[in-house]
């Protein structure tokens, strides 16, 4: 018997996801935050009507994405990068195909 894993979001996570979508976070970053697969995030966005609701609204395109200076999980540098990106671009490119960064998310 195959058990299908279905992700259910708490109200807090759902609120976060809506806001994250509004802030135009990359689905990859949403997936990292919710600790699920990118495809799952896309399904969640559709299931909760977030993608549809927002695309029908007028969205301004000249707003820069939010940034933060959180110390990089890998090298601790504090250069600006998109919010909820936990490693700097330099480290990110090194670990693009690895997922072990994931496990450190809750340690900080
Ligand atoms: Zn780094």
How would you sum up this structure, described in words?
With 108 residues, the chain is mainly α. The protein has 5 helices and 2 strands. It has helices at residues 11-22, 27-34, 38-47, 50-55, 89-94; strands spanning 67-68, 81-82. Strands 1-2 form a two-stranded antiparallel ribbon. The longest helix is centred in the N-terminal third of the chain and has 12 residues, at 11-22. It is globular, with a radius of gyration of 15 Å. The termini are far apart. The mean pLDDT is 80. Bound molecules: zinc ion (ZN). Zinc ion (ZN) binds next to helix 5.
Secondary structure blueprint with pairings:
Blueprint: H1 11-22, H2 27-34, H3 38-47, H4 50-55, E1 67-68, E2 81-82, H5 89-94
Antiparallel strand pairs: 1-2
The protein binds zinc ion.
Residues 72, 74-75, 77, 87-88, 90-91 line the site of zinc ion.
Secondary structure: helix percent: 25-40%
Our Rg estimate from Cα atoms comes to 15 Å
**Which structural class is indicated by helix and strand composition?**
mainly alpha
Q: Characterize the quaternary organization of these chains.
A: single chain
Q: Largest sheet, if any? A: 2 strands, antiparallel
Catalogue the unreliable spans.
Answer: none
Figure out the total of helices: 5
Helix and strand string, N-terminal first? HHHHEEH
Count the E strands: 2
Across the major sheet, the strand order is 1-2
Question: What does this entry show, briefly?
Answer:
It contains 5 helices and 2 strands; from the N terminus they run ααααββα. It is mainly α and about 110 residues long.
């Amino acid at each position: 018997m195959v058990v299908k894993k279905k992700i259910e979001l708490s109200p807090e996570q759902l609120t976060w996801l809506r806001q994250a979508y509004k802030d135009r976070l990359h689905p990859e970053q949403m997936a990292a935050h919710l600790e699920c697969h990118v495809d799952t995030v896309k399904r969640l966005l559709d299931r909760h009507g977030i993608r549809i609701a927002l695309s029908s609204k007028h969205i301004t395109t000249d707003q820069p994405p939010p940034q933060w200076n959180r110390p990089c999980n890998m090298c601790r540098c504090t250069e600006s990068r998109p919010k909820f990106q936990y490693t700097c671009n330099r480290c990110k490119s090194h670990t693009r195909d690895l997922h072990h960064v994931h496990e450190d998310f809750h340690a900080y």
